[in-house]
Amino acid sequence: MTETVKKPGYIDLSELAISIGVLLYFIAVIVVNQVDSAVTSGFYYIAIILCFVFYAVYKREFSMSPVVFFALGGIFLATVNFAEVGNIKLLPCFILFSSFFLAMIFLSPKVNDNTFLIAVFLNAFVVAVKLGLHGLNTPVYVDSSNNYISIHLLSPALLYYTRLDLGKKKMPLYPVAVIWILCLLAGGRGGVLACTILAFGVVMRRYLSNPKDRRSRIKLLFILTVLMIPATLIILQYLVSRLSGLYVMDRFMNKGLDGGGRLDCWTEYIQNAFKSTKNFLFGVPLDEVSWAIRYKGNLHNSFLFVHAYTGFFGLAFLLGMLIRAAAYAIRNHMGVYLCCLFTLCFRGMTDHMFGVNRHTVVVLAMVFIPICMALQKKQKGTEDAYISCYTGAGRLQGNPQ
User: Fold this and answer.
1) Phi and psi dihedrals of 387, rounded to 5?
2) Quick check: pTM over 0.90?
3) What is the pLDDT of residues 152-185, one digit of tens each?
4) What is the DSSP string of 150-196?
5) For residue 201, which of 161, 238, 241 has the smallest C-alpha distance?
């Protein structure tokens, strides 16, 4: 692909259109979780279609041919589950099929990074307004607990920071700080821990990424830590004594990560999975899991959901892709990307973050990055040329950075 030089003030219509399509997707997810109706669901499906239209009309950055194979495989497994198990329905099948292609669109260098940042703060605004107006005990989403606040905030944030790491760009701290604070206020234990993993990666990249300044930055962090330890202990003692009766502190002090039944639910599902070859290969019927019935079909574990909807082969595919993505991140020294993968896995283990739902596109985008890099390397002849699309160097200067 030949890069073009942009003039000052030039607006790339294709970038604008595809970015708007992606942003509409996240807005549709926000809306449908505030008012669950035929109208809002229609808006969500329209957003999916617009993403495809904008991507098809304007010049594509890479072929989707490998993803077509994966998408067809996913639909095949979902169809088998529909016929043999009955967990999955028609509309979730459409969401699953679309998620494979949307993931590639979300990774397109034509999508502006700030698209995902805007999605983060739109979600944060909704959460802050609801919690501020109605209190910490009020559910932010329709028919959903506030444990899912972290999922809706992390989904675009993980893509945002991963794209910044891919483009070797500066990591802003305020997005992850906002997410962490809102998750703490909402009492989301798993969410706070997941955000802490992400924050660790961002902070380490922000302050320790430049080899020339590493010693001075380490010394600075050490001095600040030593100075802040006494003040932090005093502040924490005061906060615990003053806030121990509040909802947030009560949840953290009186409940564990098991959430009053998570481990029992996971154990029961896994035991049922090994009861028969059919359950193991195609998924366990959710109406046979008593804890899932009690939780209204929620297994509180995304990996178990993947198995419940696509069986052993779907779960094996996901785990294999996650391992490949982690190896790629380690091999290419992409620490933030690796922390984003850990965050995704940790949060996915405690709630329904992915697995044939509206956030499945996020996990697919995260694991498809090595595929995208390989496609671009084949097309451009060098992997750095693809990274230059994210840094903007190729488009602005006509050559890789």
Assistant:
1) -60, -35
2) no
3) 999 999 999 999 999 888 889 899 989 988 988 8
4) HHHHHHHHHHHHHHHHHTT----SHHHHHHHHHHHHTT-HHHHHHHH
5) 161
